[in-house]
TrEMBL record:
This is 5-formyltetrahydrofolate cyclo-ligase. It catalyses: (6S)-5-formyl-5,6,7,8-tetrahydrofolate + ATP = (6R)-5,10-methenyltetrahydrofolate + ADP + phosphate. PANTHER family: ATPASE INHIBITOR/5-FORMYLTETRAHYDROFOLATE CYCLO-LIGASE, CHROMOSOME UNDETERMINED SCAFFOLD_24, WHOLE GENOME SHOTGUN SEQUENCE. Belongs to the 5-formyltetrahydrofolate cyclo-ligase family. Keywords: ATP-binding, Ligase, Magnesium, Metal-binding, Nucleotide-binding. GO terms for molecular function: 5-formyltetrahydrofolate cyclo-ligase activity. It comes from the Bacteria.
Length: 190
């Protein structure tokens, strides 16, 4: 299936989820993450969920990271450049919703992309090869392309994988893992 159709299909499926279901599934995803070999790193990039889009709630993941004393890096969208600026989450970080209702840090200690070890990635759908479908704005595509080559890319999804996304590009950067409430998919080579 093509990205355009997958985007519409999964937006509709997510809109059908209740708040309670989202909370339950998000907690299951956080628990599944604990089985991944990703906890020996220092800097973890974590998106903050957009409630209106019924995204995976990342608060349970944030609690895990803080409990493991990890450095949490939060993205802020820079619309003119279509890039993400990354800020270290501290006790003084102020979170505010932007014009699209995305919760993000106002400012703070900026973290260079080459410091980031693990990226948790929002998505709408993914396939058996680790390709993903996002909202289509390209923020994460640009961000992942700027990250170091061995950054660990972890998608979070309420739904299981599609067989194939037909219209992927050579420049698309596949996930290393995708975690759903029921399964952990690994796409790492070797």
């Amino acid at each position: 299936m093509k990205k355009k159709f997958l985007r519409a299909k999964y937006k509709k499926l997510r809109l059908g989820l209740s708040k309670e279901t989202i909370e339950d599934l998000s907690l299951q995803i956080a628990n599944q993450l604990l089985t991944l070999p990703i906890w020996n790193y220092d800097f973890y990039h974590l998106f903050l969920s957009i409630a209106e889009q019924k995204e995976v709630e990342t608060e349970p993941i944030l609690h895990i990271l803080q409990g493991k004393d990890k450095n949490v890096v939060l993205p802020k969208t820079d619309v003119p450049t279509n890039k993400l600026i990354n800020y270290l989450l501290t006790d003084t970080t102020v979170i505010k919703r932007n014009r699209w209702n995305i919760p993000e840090p106002l400012d703070g200690i900026e973290i260079n992309v080459d410091k980031i070890d693990v990226v948790f990635i929002p998505l709408l759908a993914f396939d058996k090869s680790g390709h993903r479908v996002g909202y289509g704005k390209g923020f994460y595509d640009k961000f992942l392309a700027a990250c170091k080559e061995d950054v660990v890319k972890v998608g979070l999804s309420f739904f299981e994988s599609e067989i194939e996304i037909e219209d992927t590009y050579q420049s698309d950067i596949p996930l290393d893992y995708c975690v759903t409430p029921e399964n952990t998919y690994s796409f790492k080579k070797g």
